[in-house]
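[SOLVED] Need 3D model of a two-part complex

Original post:
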Amino acid sequence: MKIDLENVKPMDIEKRSFEIITEELGDTPLVPGTELIVKRCIHTSADFDYAKNLCFSENVVEKAMQAIKEGACIVTDTQMAKSGINKRVLSRYGGEVYCFMSDEDVAAIAKENGCTRATACMDKALTMDKKLIFAIGNAPTALVRLYELIQDGKLSPELIIGVPVGFVNVVQSKELIMQTNVPYIVAKGRKGGSNIAACICNALLYMMDNDRG
Amino acid sequence: MKIDLENVKPMDIEKRSFEIITEELGDTPLVPGTELIVKRCIHTSADFDYAKNLCFSENVVEKAMQAIKEGACIVTDTQMAKSGINKRVLSRYGGEVYCFMSDEDVAAIAKENGCTRATACMDKALTMDKKLIFAIGNAPTALVRLYELIQDGKLSPELIIGVPVGFVNVVQSKELIMQTNVPYIVAKGRKGGSNIAACICNALLYMMDNDRG
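Solution:
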């Protein structure tokens, strides 16, 4: 079988990909101002479900950008998401990315309390004296804990990117976050992942800054 | 709105997730011996398409396990995939994970040759004197280069996990790999990703070793 490769220069591959995505989306309705986030999620997953499942709280994009400009840090629930976020661009605004999942104190507290490490990570984040964005791509228990901390008035994040993936309490944990007054970007349903969490962070950063180097 | 959380202990979440996946797969036909790989990909993505798009060369699972037992190393095309692979379990067999994407020499060669960094990474892997498994979750150009190196008789990998995601030459690059005589696990079509690449590596490792700690 003869296989024909499309002749696209390395620097043009992403541009061409976004053209194809835009073309195939056709007139699918997207929330104005969120198009680049939705398209980047599709680019990351080749899954057009993200055109329908991504939910945005009011003016969340502006609020998120403002928080990043003010030096907000990102807390994630996986090393994979941390690895995927463009830390160089974030650092231009003074922000850093944190993941506490491999920390020994987190493992000890999780064991002691019979909770997940992701839950213990959220409690650890609470001790940080910084503006915080949470990018949760794996653990619904992290979202549940964030919800509790918000309801208790202990935490007031700048943004929650709520995109854990999976089958146990994933749908519910996202619904909880959408009931808070905290700005959110949530992938309704079961889908999401560390790649999607990182991708949404990067989409925001690239909307602010076209120079990614 | 009242939201009911399912009461599942942290240590039981994955088990419960796999039960739900098995239940929903019903009698979907899967290649015998590959079930745990397919289910883990669905677990990672909540996308049941992986029950249909994953393609396995003959006896690839046995061959992959044998290679890992013999100390094969894994080369990936993203730091995210590297970050997601269980390096502790792999190291029990003597293997390590490599990603050259951030290497300065790779960036320089890519610029000089007008190729992608992923292509240059595959050339760099060629200089390694080790049994190699390639886990490609992002760059179709990496798969195209692997195909060329295999056709030229310069490279003979133990396994290619060919799961780049995207819209430009992704479908074609996977078809090329499936035309070689190299053992492969490929997600036919556009879907895949660094998470899926890492997940397939981990599925193989966990099938060999139930103790992940």
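Edit: Residues 66 and 72 of chain B are 9 Å apart (CA to CA).
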